[in-house]
Design goal:
This protein has about 400 residues and is α/β, with parallel strands linked by helices. It has helices at about 15-20, 35-45, 55-65, 80-85, 100-115, 130-140, 160-165, 185-195, 210, 300-305, 310-325, 335-350, 365-370, and strands at about 1-5, 25-30, 50, 70, 90-95, 120, 145-150, 195-205, 220-230, 235-240, 250-255, 260-265, 270-275, 285-290, 360.
């Protein structure tokens, strides 16, 4: 039995619902500083310990047998809480980007290795029906040698929508550089191709539209585009969370024999597989739209259809069970999580330096962790507005 505590009842809401419907989980405690959210949880989960303080959440949860924590707190505060939970003897799931400084990346990996606790990054976009279909095609060797990949995740919104998601002057969304939220674009590429980023170069583009609300949202760039060399020799282009005038996600992987892609102009629920004329196998069509849905996964697929993020949330719950109870190593372990975070961090540094190329540390190697252990550059303010050591947007000449 996984006796789980959830830190963050708003972002964690969909997972709280999934945990409550799964007999392998018991929701032991919920922590959130928002008293209204806690009141809602009190009605649904009368047996769970509810509080607004993380230390109290840990101590009281552990007394009640809590053995795992799901972190759904603010984007820029996952690593410190993950470390505190693991040092308390708990396994950890981080709902979004693991760390926002290279120092945090190193410390997070150190903690996993020191404590022996299990850690999962809950990156759910690789587990949509379309991305799973692409992964299956790639894993069969259909594409030949992998050459190039693209991942695009867009999230634009009106001023009112943006501000409703930014409750407070120092809320992380008001300071988020465009490269930092890259898990939904890079994650599927990594999972499909079973690769890790090695080098990153990036550029950001200024948005006049967002600049109009710069006093409220200081991250007024409209797009961040990153370019990586991966450890399998492939190159990849992907976005951070951009504000471009399109809200679809799109993924493509190309090899020397064929390519697969979905999103954009391609019909929903379909994956396009394309062979070159001279590489097309006998009896196959050169250009084919393949159906991508969960029906081929049987009962598991039916359950996935009921979950959020295109079924990805269900797969995350399954990954938690497989890892914490079954001992199966997740793809998005602490090393993959640290590599993704470092790509975001160094990608933004590249934007500030006109596309300079940066090597991403291999966090599996202690000497490489040691090389960045003192790197605390950070674009996010603390609750009092201090602590910023890096701009969150490109400089603008008035």
């Amino acid at each position: 039995m996984i006796k789980i505590g959830v830190f963050g009842a708003w972002r964690g809401n969909s997972y709280i619902d999934l945990f409550s419907r799964d007999d392998d989980f018991e929701i032991t405690a919920i922590c959130d500083k928002n008293t209204e959210k806690l009141s809602e949880c009190r009605e649904k989960f009368p047996g769970a310990y509810l509080c607004g303080d993380f230390d109290e959440f840990l101590s009281e949860g552990i007394k009640r047998g809590m053995n795992a924590v799901f972190l759904a707190n603010y984007f820029n505060r996952h690593a410190p809480y993950a470390i505190k939970a693991m040092e308390s003897g708990l396994n950890v799931v981080s709902e979004c980007t693991a760390a926002v400084t290279l120092k945090e990346c190193a410390e997070l990996v150190d903690c996993v290795e020191k404590t022996g606790r299990k850690y999962i990054l809950a990156e759910n976009y690789p587990f949509s029906a379309e991305n799973l279909k692409m992964e299956k095609i790639i894993s069969q060797g259909t594409l030949g040698s992998l050459l190039y990949a693209e991942g695009e995740y867009n999230h634009s919104g009106s001023v009112d929508e943006l501000m409703s998601l930014t409750p407070g002057k120092y809320h992380w969304r008001a300071w988020l550089p465009r490269t930092y939220y890259l898990t939904h674009s890079l994650g599927p590429i990594m999972y499909m191709t079973k690769s890790m980023p090695k080098y990153v170069s990036a550029r950001a583009a200024h948005s006049d539209l967002l600049y109009q609300i710069k006093e409220l949202r200081h991250n007024y760039d409209g797009a961040g585009i990153l370019f990586c060399e991966m450890d399998n020799g492939m190159i990849a282009r992907f976005t951070g969370c951009t504000a471009m005038a399109s809200d679809y996600s799109r993924y493509r992987v190309a090899g020397d024999r064929a390519s697969v892609e979905w999103g954009g102009y391609i019909e929903s629920g379909k994956v396009r597989r394309y062979f070159f004329g001279h590489t097309c196998p006998e009896g196959e069509s050169k250009d084919t739209l393949l159906t991508a849905d969960f029906s081929e996964f049987g009962e598991e697929g039916e359950k996935a259809k009921q979950a959020g993020h295109g079924g990805g949330d269900y797969r995350i719950v399954k990954e938690i069970k497989d890892c914490f109870d079954g001992g199966i190593k997740p793809f998005f372990d602490v090393y993959a999580a640290a590599a993704m975070s470092a790509t975001a961090i160094l990608g933004w540094r590249s934007c500030l330096n006109h596309g300079e190329n940066f090597r991403i540390p291999d966090f599996r190697v202690k000497e490489e962790r040691d090389s960045v252990r003192g790197d605390c550059l950070n674009p996010f303010p603390d609750e009092n507005g201090g602590g910023i050591t890096l701009p969150c947007a490109l400089p603008v000449e008035e």
